[in-house]
Amino acid sequence: MASGDDDDPIIKEIDVYLAKSLGDKLYLFQYPVRPSTMTYDDVDHLAAKIKPKQQKVELEMLLNTMSPNYCRSKGEQIALNVDGTTYDETNTYSAKMMDKQTFSSIQSTTNTSRYAAAVFRKGELHITPLTGILQMRPSFSYLDKADNKTREREAANEGGDSSQDEAEEDAKAITVRFARPESEQARQRRIQSYEFLQKKQAEEPWVHLNYYGVKDSRSEHERQYLFCQSMDASENSELVKTPKEYLEMLMPPLAEEKVVKPVGPSNVLSMAQLRTLPLGEQVKTLMKNVKVMPFANLMGLLASGTDSTSVLRCIQQVALLVQGNWVVKSDVLYPKNTCSAHSGVPAEVLCRGRDFVMWRFTLERSVMRKEITSIIKLPPEDVKEFLEHVAVPRINRGWEFLLPTDVDFIKKHPDVAHRQNMLWLGIQSKLEKVFNFSKEDFMPKNSPQPEPACLSGEQRLQMAQERAKENQSSLQKDLDAKRAGSSIQRAVSNSKDEPMDTSSIPNGSINGYCSATSPNFNHTNGNGGSPANMPSPELQDFVKKTFRKHFVLTLNEFKRLFNLHVASMPAGWHVFQSISDHMLQDAILLCQCKQIMVPFPAGNSAAPDEQKVFGLWETGEDFDKHRRLLYDLFTKNYRVRRNMVQAKLTEELGDISKAQIDRLLNECCKSHAGMWYLKGTIHS
Questions:
Q1: Average per-residue pLDDT in the chain?
Q2: Three-state DSSP class for residue 470
């Protein structure tokens, strides 16, 4: 030893022995949910089993059902939920009571090379390496069994209540898929998946064990193997190492690690690394990540001073123009010799299907997913991926293109727009041959055809003049109809000595509400129609039931509920036929409901049908007064605070309880960021 260590003299030397008898079967059990003073040594162990490869252990221990801390009724209920009322050998709790508990293990660490169990005896230290360190925690697998029993009972009840003469199910088309060769990358993902690991764990059989307590003679016999069995000096060599070598063995020097550049997430793009690429690669990388982008945004992502002409030249190589915005080409996303990650469809087929989706968006703002799928005949997962690249789903409107039409770019670069239009015509002709359709199949009847991306000044002037003539003719017809309607109204007013019917005014309002339910409402001419146009009793019944349940609905939400109701009716029922939005609104106003004229803020993105809000007005209950006062608040502002509602009700009706305020707001409103909105007027 060095002279500097003389101040730390050696007091005693201890011989250390390595015991190997239990080297491959010694486990350390930990019980993290129980204090060390409360051991399980005196608890009866009913069963034990292990999966050696996975180091998975399960122990069954007896519960003391006579303990004052044990709830007998709960134990019986759990056993009833798990095993049901029948008794057989497969029951989890044979005593019809939860009288045992299962402990399942998880590994504390996968590397136990630095851990060992040590025993000190007669000046000798014997150490045995640990095979595993396991934490034993209570298992609640019996809850899964109870859930399965509940589902089985529900399925049996549903099957018993079904009609005997129920028609046979219609034949459904199925999609047949053939397994494709698995790539190495796909194989690695599959091996690391949770489903694969669960399957591998289930394949290893359980090895059942016998449990012996701490004080059992067999346990005492096994503990002897913790001592080194061979004490012969010839087999135990003395450690002859210098202190420096010994320290290096205990703490080996760290090997120099090669500096590896960290890999960022696949959806994160480093702009610093992007700027080091050529311009063409920058544009391609950006479009591949973003999928759809206006040209102005693309220029903003590139380095300042980049020539826009060069960018235009590069963008046309990797993207196509759709509604004035650039959308990445299909062959950039799906290169040759690749396939779909969802279904294994080859890249060539994916490109044709995605080109069809993009071409449809050159014709209209929204498309229907079912219609797309029926034409291109691709799996739903792939079609959804195509749409998610360039569109967002809208309620009752299908998938709408992600960005507004970039008119400025088309005006600024008419030559590029014209060239792209020619490209789309070529793509269209190829798609027509592949999918056997014509462009006219997707044009709504009596709708104007989309204008070409580039028109001359004379062509635009001529089209504008034609549209002006059509509009003038339409306005003249409307004016004549209104004059005729006014003459009829005056004749009716002169023939009857009664107040003027204000409900005949379209969208007329009194104090912020549509007055369709005023006492003087005339069903014949007040709604602009004869008794033949009156809503059917079935429709009125549906309106009343719906508003009794929801109290406040936008026209858009009411139409959705109505469509669901119609779709749920049995086949062959034709109670509701050719019902327009105007007829639905009339039916709502005739069924003790009124339109609430909510003052939406400027720039509100809600659709017109979402801005038409209707509320239940009359039910015959005293609580109607509360709803009317709430509606009055929402004619002044589209959002209110709770204290404003409370102050209004207190001022008009006196003392109001908290329960009444809660009921009113829960029935008619939705809360967001501390403010209250009428149902359907906010999307949180």
A1: 78
A2: helix
Is residue 338 one of the residues assigned to a domain? yes
Q: Find all residues with CB under 8 Å of 244, minimum gap 6, and list them.
A: none
The 8-class DSSP code of residue 498 comes to S
Query: Are residue 245 and residue 285 in the same domain, yes or no?
Result: no
Measured CA to CA, the distance from residue 207 to residue 469 in angstroms comes to 90
Contacts of 349 (CB under 8 A, 6+ apart): 378
Q: The domain containing residue 229 runs over which residues? A: 14-63+99-154+197-253
Regarding whether 431 and 286 lie in a shared domain, the answer is yes
593 within domain boundaries = yes
Is residue 236 located within the same domain as residue 303? Answer: no
Task: Please give the structure tokens belonging to residue 351.
Answer: 């490109």
pLDDT single digits (tens) 587-625: 898 888 999 998 888 767 677 777 889 999 988 888 999
Which tens digits make up the pLDDT trace of 459-470?
Answer: 555 665 666 566
Are residues 222 and 119 part of one domain? yes
> Does residue 556 register a pLDDT over 50?
yes
- Sign, CA dihedral 261-265-271-274, equals positive
pLDDT at 510: 35
Residue 626: how many CB atoms within 10 A of its CB?
22
Confidence of residue 420 (pLDDT cuts 50, 70, 90): very high
**Position 2 in a domain:** no
Question: Cα 522 to the chain's mean position, in Å?
Answer: 49
